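User: I'm putting together a teaching handout on how multi-component assemblies are represented. Below are the sequence lines for each component of a complex, exactly as they appear in our records. Could you produce the 3D structure of the whole assembly as structure tokens, so the students can see both representations side by side? Please keep the chain order the same as the input.
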Amino acid sequence: MTAALLLPAGLAVLAAVAIPLLVHLARRTQAVPTDFAALRWLRQRPRPRQRPRFDEWPLLVARLLLVALLALFFARPVLIGEAQPRAIVAAVPGADTRGLGERAVWLAPGFPPVTDPAPAGYVPVASLLRELDATLPPGARLTVRVPATIEGADAERPVLSRAVDWQVVTGRMAPPRATTPVAVRLAVRDGGVAGAAYLRAAAVALGHRDAGSAAAPLPHAGALAWFVPGAVPDKVRDFAARGNVVLLPVTASLPGAETVWRDRLGASVAEGTAVGRGRMLRFVRPLVPAALPALVEPDFPDRLAEAIAPPRARPSRATARDLAPVIGDRAAGEGLATTDLRPWLALAVALLFLAERWLATRRRRAVTP
Amino acid sequence: MTADPLPPGTRARLAGLRLVTRRASGAGGIGLHASRSRGAGLEFAQYRPYEPGDEPRQIDWKLYARADRFFVREAERESPVALWTLVDATASMAQADARAPDWTRWAAARAMAAALGELALAGGDRFGWVVLAQEGLELAQPAAGVRQRDRLRRELAALRGAGRFPAPDRLAPVFERIAARDLVVMLSDFFDPAAVATATRLADAGREVVAIQLLTVAERDFDFAGGHRFRDPETGEELLGDADALRADYLARFADARAALTAEWEAHGVRHATYVLDEPLDAPLRRLFA
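Assistant: Of course. Below is the structure of the complete assembly, with chains in the same order as your input.
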């Protein structure tokens, strides 16, 4: 068990101990005049005392302690390795939980106990495994019950700091919500930029007939080819930010964009960037067959439809055996359980503050520094 | 009825005391003090029917001529001694010790004046008072009786110490009203030379003067600690100093000043006593009159 400071820079608050020191050095006893009628027999000593003196020692000590505790509070003290190793059993929602004790938890956000109903919906199993591993004290044994097929894997096999008892049991997880590809309606606004006719033709080929001039009203949702010279107006940006797609000609500028569409030879056709909840795409070449041979390929409308379609969900299904965690080469101390001492410090600060107020306001005091 | 200004227990200790004058050779009337005059006093009080045993010379013969009955003329008792209490009401009298902030020098002076009034009342003497304040004197002609005592309590209760010692021209009533052979008790701290001069001038003019100096404990012991900003309540003058460094020098100077004051009292024939605020109130009276 070791005490440590998470934010040692917070100790800079210790400089504030100068405040009570100065307050008590200010010698407020001299600020309040003392009536003394026999003043004519008092004479100023030629040599005043040089030694600094503090008034009201108990109050000063209380205030210094208060400042020091506050500085410690800001430095975020923790106790490391305080918790004892223990065993924990986690069950993936959908797995068979028969025979599990009261202490077992669901592998779901917040890790509710298994006595609660199983959490419904999609569960990021791999991510939760890493979180559970990081929050457990070192040495705690982890047992995970999983069904044979896991929904919620991600691109990496979980690499944990401990060996996991990986029990594959019966049961099945709720499958992720199926997303059926929906055709995005493409509207074309032709302001005279070269190549708009190709897009209009592609839209007609895809079955969408919403074409018009720049003055025509924008569609409610879907994709919009904005082939109007000049800067992109705000209403088009807002249209994109609402979760839609805007196609721009090569003359438009789109800073920070990355290539999202390549032709058969690997050359870039369009680049795109996220705007709000939607995207903006820009053709990097003029829409003429000489510059963009893909324009006259027969699958140009299909490629265009792919580019403006929403991104597909990543596959997340894996067999439990393939997702069994491996022990990583992390340092043993990483992910140690820590106990935050700040609540206790806050209590001590509050008590000390009360004591300081009592010392400062009790009746038997001559003056009030 | 104003509250009794005397601290509890003081009245019992005052019981054995009585006002003593050095020149109590009263020619005025009847009282505890020895009187050379015979018969009744001067102030007419009442007629009462003659009773056997009354002296014939006390019968009012003119009234007998009118009423055909004997009436005896009675006079009020009149003491030969009038007690004047001169109370200093300057700002320095409002000073008190930190340990007893309510027991100011003025409170002590008021209680002392009340105690003197009780003594005069017990002895049948007339008593009056003068409050010496900057804006003017409050003067009460000597009279005897419980009403005068109540008036003393009532008038002094309303006052507080403020201002400086009155100018000499304002003090003229003191010298006009206080008759020769009257007993004058002056209550003050006697830090202001004008106060001392008033007392010595009265003594030189043939009045019997008793000076009671009222001191706070701090003035006697200088029991301050640490730094203080001392302020003279009358002049407003301030002095910043460390009490520990000032103490020895102050005590020596103050003792010299008190010795000088004592010598001056002796030179002018003024009886004197000192009362420090932590003593029982009757202690100076006991030293003076017991």
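A couple of points students might notice: The first helix of chain B runs from residue 10 to 13. The longest strand of chain B covers residues 126-133.
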